Amino acid sequence: MSIDANFQIQLAEFSLEVELKLTEGEVLAVLGPNGSGKSTLLRALSGLQPIESGVIKIHDVVVDDAEHSLFVMPEHRHVGVMFQSSELFNNLSVLENVAFGLRSRGTKRNNARAHAAEWLERFSLEQFAQRRPTSLSGGQAQRVALARALATNPNLLLLDEPTSALDVRAKAEIRRDLLRLRQQRPVTTLLVTHDPLDAFALADRVIVLEEGRIVQSGALDDVASHPRSRHIADMVGLSLVRGEVRDGALTTPSGARLVVPADSPPGLSVASIRPASVSLHRAEPEGSARNAWSMTVTDIDRHPERVRARLNGPIPLLAELTPAGAEALALTVGDTIWASVKASEVTVTPDLGT
Amino acid sequence: MSEHRGTRARSVELRRPPLAIIAIAAVAIAFFALPFIGLLWRVPWTDAWSLLTTQSSLTALRLSITTSLWATALSIIFGVPLAWVLARYGFPGRRVVRALCLLSLVLPPVVGGVALFAAYGRRGLLGDSLFELFGMRLPFSTAGVVLAQTFIAMPFLVLTVEAALRGLDQRPEDAARTLGASRWYAFRRVTLPAIRPALIAGAVLAWARALGEFGATITFAGNFPGRTQTMPLSVYLALESNPGQALVLSVVMIAISFGVLLSLRDQWLGGSTEAGSSR
Amino acid sequence: MTSVLPPFSRSRPVAIVSAVVVAVTLLATACRAPSKSSSTTSPDSLSGSLTVSAASSLQGAFTDLKVAFEKAHPGMNVTVNFGASSTLAQQIIDGAPVDVFASADEANMTKVSNKKLQSGTPKIFATNSLEIIVRKGNPSKIASLADLSKSGLIYITCAPEVPIGKYGAQVLQKAGVKVSPASLEPDVKGIVAKVTAGEADAGIVYATDISATKGAADGVVIPADVNAIATYPIVAISTSTNSTAAQSWIAFVTGTEGQTILKNYGFGAP
After folding, report:
1. Do chains A and C touch (3 or more CB pairs under 8 A)?
2. Distance (Å) from the C-alpha of residue B192 to the closest C-alpha of chain A?
3. Least CA distance to B184: which residue of chain A?
4. What pLDDT score was predicted for residue B266?
5. Which of A275, A332, B180, B249 is the S-S candidate for A105 at Cβ 3.0 to 4.6 Å?
6. CATH no. for C48-127+232-264
7. CATH number of C130-221
8. CATH 3.40.190.10 occupies which residues in chain C?
9. Contact B180 A78 (CB under 8 A)
10. Residue A47: its chain B contacts at CB < 8 A?
11. Residue ranges in chain A assigned as alpha helix (H)
């Protein structure tokens, strides 16, 4: 097991009680609203916060055991951490920042710098090597922070809301870097975020944390299709569509066409659609929605307050309607049904490839 | 019919305090300016250079500079760790310990001198042990001057550095620890650079205070030219024997202190500092 | 419609600051407000306040004298200011409101009369001889002036402007002893304090100072042939606001009662 943790920490309003395991190379996303204890979870794993009861083992080594007063300092845990705001050291150059981890472990300056330069090259950041962190944009700083965390070759990567402080384009860049990393040298990763797009882009598995407790866990698709609470439902359940945007429409590799907002930048993009934005009709709709497809219902998740339906078709979608609405349509699995989405309710993000 | 005023002048006018406040502040400025204006007015300028370059003046000046620099160095070497402990280590009784360490800030320096005797004098706690172990007698010695100055001046540095450490964002240090830095490495390469302005300001203030130290010095180290007679003592004694020399030396001390204060930027005097990380 | 606001002058605040600074400066240089205390000319009903600046070595005697004087003249309020004669002389020259000055040597009295600040001629009212002060029990085993130059001995004195500093140097010179002092204290009581506290081993002070320690320190006699005799002059200050009382005090000090008190403290006759 890469991570085997079972612990408790008392927070201001509630107690964080978590039991989780990660296997080698797995990417786990921890979703949850602000204040649910996600950051504390990450700090406990990285050693910045001791637990109050329980045990944390990383790569089968006990790093925190409350009963036996065993605690391994953060500098000895060999964990790479990325923070929401890059926390680059302003008194050092970008190169020295990336070399910091190695130097702090005893590597000689020149070796550390050479190693750091390699990492900067991998991320195409070499032109910033001599610059000060204050002269970088948010996105650039975060990418340097990622290089800095990876330069020490950690066997566990902890990402604390790595994209939440960034603009849309920078978010996409970081996700691309992380995806590339997964392919080239996979590292066990725990990603804390409140943005489901991060989870969609990167995670194998998802857990949802609310008020210190894990309220749902599983593969992303499952959680999205069968959310256990309104909250989770709101958080996950986006439909993602990849393709190229041109002349106001996104065309998928399979040829399906999705009309997007007029101001969407052209090029490779990812469109996301909230389940509530998908309307279902028995007959082909006319009217303002110019996006309409005939779909097959593959799964229905019924809940007293809402119904979610998985739809398969030119553009696979997740739709959400009220129980009354589902009743009126007499929705059943296997049905053929029309789904429509207004162009204005589609969100487009540049897709920088993997 | 309004006259055209530059934007900058209008901005200044917009933000400045009301005239009544400015008037009161003006009285305060006069209060501070008057003694120095008076001093400059009474200095015997024609004899100034010869008075300044007498053997006793130069000796006192050299002794003052040497001892105050030593006192500043000791204040940094011991004061920074103390500030670190007071700011970051929540041990029981910390408040009491902190008050104890800052006591000489509010104590009359002469009282400090008396207390130093009680600790390091011949009949003090450590006096005889120091003599037996190191052959060192602190009262009436130059080392005693450095001790007295350090005792009085170090709290200035501790206060400034501690305040800066308390106000510092700890997240860069957290990041450094996760990267593999030990506590000391993180402090050296991340924290200290971040509080550099406060550290410099604290050191400069401590140095200025050490330079001007009188009460504890004359009480504990005594007064002897070349050994313990620093500039302030020299001025005090010259008042009776050679008032002209006292004035000239006073002006020199004021010029040094004034220059030092001018060189300190506003932000350093306030003791504030910015966190050492980006975004 | 034209603006109703007064025309904004950027120099207005600056003008105010300058005006205040100038005003305060003028006030300071032009002002002189001596305090006037009431006094009557009747000798047997003296009243008011009297400030006497006296050498440190006179501390015991003049305190008793003050009590006796106030008893004899119930309307009088006497304040005695003790210090090194050199310090006191400088204070008077700088304008301190003092009525009477009693110095431990004539040199410092001369400083005052050189500035024409005396009223009348200074009178010698007492003498004092010098003695070596040592720690209680004389642990350093000092028997003579020559012992003061023993290595490792901490000998302290006062700066030459202070009477005892000058007298002490005279004595050592007469005896042909060379000693390097560890410190030049601001006044004689400083020497007494440090030797009594045990922080210094010896010093040369007035004989009266040693008896004043009441056994907290010991003394070693200096042979008369090398000893110096300190002469104490007293004078009224010309800027005194209570000259009758000042003269009365001087008469008291030089009179029978004053002389008896001084003798009790170990002072010699003038």
Report:
1. no
2. 10
3. A104
4. 64
5. B180
6. 3.40.190.10
7. 3.40.190.10
8. 48-127+232-264, 130-221
9. yes
10. 177-178
11. 38-46, 94-104, 109-122, 138-150, 168-184, 196-202, 220-225, 230-235, 323-329
